[in-house]
Write a structure and sequence with these properties.
By secondary structure, the chain is mainly alpha-helical. The chain contains ten helices and two strands.
Length: about 280
């Protein structure tokens, strides 16, 4: 049953990724000038932190305006307006989206202690922010904040050579299929050889998590004792030439190792490639 679940998972991921790629091609990409505010061009991620600052300032204005504290309302309104107007300088292509007049109106109302005027200006500015976020935030996050795997490398415990991550993943998929094909056709030696290489490749892969994750928790989650036991079982069942046991072990690996990681990383990687085919 686990083997069937794994096959269905592969079909779903493949069809889902293909659909996502087709949809992604119709989505508008953000201006190229935005790249200068994100890694690798900018390790501080200035654009992202400017967004955080704007949200914090807007919340402060709302809270102090509700409390009737005109002085602090004006202080945070001025800070909001300063950062908000900088957006047009940071990404000139989005200049027309920035409503300087509303930011000035917010500050003027705050200085006057005009609570209703502050609320009205904030409402207008909030509508503008939401409109831009609805159109761009998901794509910007995918391009600039999702991991890019093309430069990752996996060290082979067999040859001690570093292999590009996509090449390693393609090889693992081919080895898994080779095991199942060879077993179905009664080629026991081929299944054993492919299975041994597959097991070694999965273990090598577990070490690559550290390229992004600076703590051990993700690796322990994906390669937990259930997966270690499944790898041991796969080796044992291949030695016994037990096709049913081999399928069960592969099914467990597919559902609890491949599936867990792919559901988090594979679809975002596919979308990134669809959006940036020349990258």
């Amino acid at each position: 049953m686990r083997s069937l679940h794994f096959v269905l998972l592969l079909v779903f991921l493949a069809s889902g990724a293909a659909w996502a790629q087709e949809q992604a091609r119709t989505l508008p990409l953000p201006p190229d000038s935005l790249a200068q505010w994100y890694p690798p061009a900018n390790q501080r991620q200035v654009w992202l932190h400017t967004m955080f600052s704007l949200r914090r300032s807007m919340q402060a204005v709302v809270e102090y305006n509700a409390l009737g504290d005109a002085k602090l309302t004006a202080h945070w309104a001025e800070r909001f307006a300063r950062d908000y107007k900088r957006l047009a300088e940071m990404v000139p292509e989005w200049k027309d989206e920035i409503e300087d007049a509303q930011a000035d109106r917010l500050v003027a109302a705050a200085i006057k202690g005009d609570s209703n005027g502050v609320s009205s200006a904030l409402q207008r500015l909030g509508t503008t922010c939401r409109s831009c976020h609805n159109e761009n935030r998901a794509i910007v996050t995918l391009i600039y904040r999702a991991p890019d795997y093309k430069n990752f490398r996996v060290e082979s415990s067999d040859t001690m050579e570093e292999v590009p991550y996509p090449q390693h993943m393609e090889r693992l998929g081919a080895l898994m299929n080779r095991v199942k094909i060879a077993q179905e056709d009664g080629r026991h030696a081929v299944a054993q050889e492919a299975g041994s290489a597959f097991i070694a490749g999965v273990k090598d892969l577990s070490a690559s998590c550290g390229a992004c994750h600076k703590d051990d928790a993700p690796r322990k989650h994906i390669f937990d004792p259930t997966i270690q036991q499944a790898l041991t079982k796969l080796d044992s069942e291949l030695q016994r030439n037990n096709r049913k046991g081999t399928d069960e072990a592969l099914g467990t690996l597919g559902a609890y190792a491949c599936g867990r990681c792919h559901s988090i990383h594979k679809n975002t990687a596919e979308l990134r490639r669809a959006l940036l085919p020349r990258e």
